[in-house]
Amino acid sequence: MLKANNQLSFCLSSHASLFDVLIEKNNFWRQLKDMVDFSFVYDELKDKYSSTMGRKAEDVIRMFKYLLLKNYYKLSDRDLIARTRTDMLFKYFLDYLPEEVNLIDPSLLTVFRRERLSNKDNEEETSTNLMDKLIAKTVEIAIKEGVIEVKNKLIQDSTHTNAMYQHISPREELIKQAKELRKTVYKIDETMHDKMPKKRESTGLLEDQIEYTKELLNLLKKDARFTTIPAINEKINMLEETMNDTEYEIEYSKDKDAKVGHKTADTSFFGYKTHIAMTPERIITAAVVTSGEKHDGKQLQKLVEKSQENGIEVEAVIGDGAYSEKENIEYCEENNIKLASKLSKFVTHGNSQRNNNFEYNKDAGMYVCKAGHMAIKKAKQGTKNGMCGDTRTECYYFDVEKCKHCKYKEGAKYKTYNVKIKDDIHIKHMDYMETNEFKELYAERYKIEAKNSELKSNFGYDTANACGKNGITIQGASALFLANIKRIIKLKEEKAKNNG
To answer: pLDDT (tens digit, 9 = 90+) per residue, 70-94?
Structure first.
């Protein structure tokens, strides 16, 4: 049965004063613990547990806190529990006593990630709801602390995250990690060259590589020299966790949910996009996770509505050219929201063709088909003042060899997609782009680029630490939550300094 209390409470301990001695008042994790009532996590996940079946469950709030530490410090489950036994900051944040050493088994964390934070009927539902709840909680705190205004502007953009396996199979990932582990071992004992298990890389079979990995781990774990050296032991634990996850998801040849996205016409990535809405104070108010090929502009309405649900009265949306498509201009106009997005001559979704099958990539200046293939060239057609009026279109050409699964004219050299160059609403938006109001709003767009960089460099959001959309959503929920809390703390300090 789960505990229904808002936070875990300390039992009396004669050593509790150690926390005040060792952990500074301005420590981030201490401030996070004091600032946030984590009972909303219990409310979100209580249906995942049974009060009448099975053994007594570990407190769900503590399990969630473990997850925050794991993602931030990039630790395996085993190393996270091992560090908690000796790290007073970890114990304080997790509501353990200073002298407590009988902690949870690492396997419980694995079960928590795989089963408690997923839904077999709709595996994205629980993780997405959790992300929404975490962001909503931080927005609530930010408004309560007076560091952001309720009536506010939203800056929108997406940040990409590389998939865990990056176009390589789990087998190749195991090979890579095993190689790094062996290299570290050889630095300690070169004679281990002759003792290592025989490699099976030439067979090309995942099962053989798993078997080799088990033999390697068994050999090294029997030797106390290696398990007592942190640099080697952490690699052992990470390889073992990767192998266990691979066995669990053995049908994967790569991340099935990840897709190729294009940053420019010549550069691409394999993974996911997290679409973000943020206030000028750099507080994230909403997020949507998609596969890498999805168009940024298609998420504008969702981000606005999620932000409104979180208590923000949206006055304006600021974004790059990807957000200036016709549907977004119309949506903002209907809802009395100013749209500060520069109208690109390429963002012209006003035609009558199957628009949902093609999405525009503003970085590459090309359309991408539903299968994820990018056009290879483009050309203008039609006239401005013809007998039928303005018939100008932009024609995008796709490589037929990549489109054989689609229907196209027999013998055709290219598959094409045409878009109308201008619409009346685009002309109206071009006039708005010349106003001082537009220019002042657009001048704040740069702020979200710094936020994207922060998520990657400070919160490890450049690469997924799990396979599948559910995994990256959980990782994103943790990263965005911690980023918002850090920003709120900084804004509170600045506010106190200015008022002081």
So the answer is: 989 988 899 999 999 999 999 999 9
For residue 392, the surrounding DSSP H or E stretch is: none
Residue 254 Cα distances to 120, 145, 258, angstroms? 20, 44, 8
Q: Of 73, 96, 116, which marks where a domain is finished?
A: 116
Lowest-confidence pick of 292-296, 326-330, 349-353:
349-353
Helices (H), 87-229: 88-93, 106-111, 123-144, 170-188, 206-221, 224-227
Query: Length of the chain in residues, anyone?
Result: 500
Q: Which tokens belong to 116?
A: 């408690």
pLDDT tens-place string over residues 437-472: 999 999 999 999 999 999 999 998 998 887 788 888
Instruction: Indicate whether 97 and 183 sit together in one domain.
Output: no
Sign of the alpha-carbon torsion through 137, 139, 144, 147: positive
User: 383 in a domain, yes or no?
Assistant: yes
pTM: 0.71
Q: Is residue 445 a part of any domain in this protein?
A: no
CB 378, CB 362: distance < 8 Å: no
Q: Which residues constitute the domain of residue 54?
A: 17-116
In angstroms, what CA-CA distances link 469 with 122, 361, 455, 498?
12, 21, 18, 43
